[in-house]
Amino acid sequence: MHPSPRERLIEAGTRLLDSEGPEALQARKVAAEIGASTMAVYTHFGGMNGLLEAIVSAAFQRFGAALASAPKTDDPMTDFFSMGYAYREFALASPQRYRLMFGLAAPQKLHVPEMPVATAAFDQLVAAVERIVATGRIRGDDTVELAGRIWSMIHGVVLLELVGTFEQDGRALSRILGPMTVDMFVGMGDSRPAAERSLRRSTELIKQRLAGADPAQAGSHRRSNKPIR
């Protein structure tokens, strides 16, 4: 089945965003990508703002899929570290989409918090935190609040890496993001040795994936051109 004009416009807009940045997201330019007139944008989305929101929604769907692809084990904290890695990988592989998703490069006002796909992505983090709380390793009555704290930390480190504060060679992951997450879990009640074991286990699982031990999933991490240290 061929994609619909609406789907083609979303795909075209995403390609332009990835290759030229948000400044390229203009009705005329996006429509020209599929050989249509500017009117197509208004017919299918009501204008550029509607198209932008559709592009962001599609990006959040991919983001959610990336989080869901993180390896699962019998240790919820190991799984959370793996999810954090998948989070970072998505942002590094699709920096323009990531910035647009979080309103950092939006040419127009978007209503991201109202998007179900954005909520669903955060819900994955909440569910991962709930699994850790259930083991008794960390304490907290409000898992949404706990997940919000951790997301804020991951988001901050990832943004600093995207703007070039840290080189994209794995050091931000091994020397900053990983240890900071350990510190946060220790502050929430876990023991440092246990948190560090979970981090090491996650690191080994990711190395195995990147080495091709799990071919079905390894492609989702193709953006990392340097090894995890």
Automatic annotation (TrEMBL):
Residues 3-63 form the HTH tetR-type domain. Keywords: DNA-binding, Transcription, Transcription regulation. It comes from Mycolicibacter minnesotensis. This is HTH tetR-type domain-containing protein. Residues 220-229 have a biased composition (Basic residues). It comes from the Bacteria. The keyword DNA-binding applies. Residues 26-45 bind DNA. GO terms for molecular function: DNA-binding transcription factor activity; transcription cis-regulatory region binding. Pfam families: TetR_C_33 (PF13305), TetR_N (PF00440). The keyword Ubl conjugation does not apply. Residues 209-229 are annotated as: Disordered.
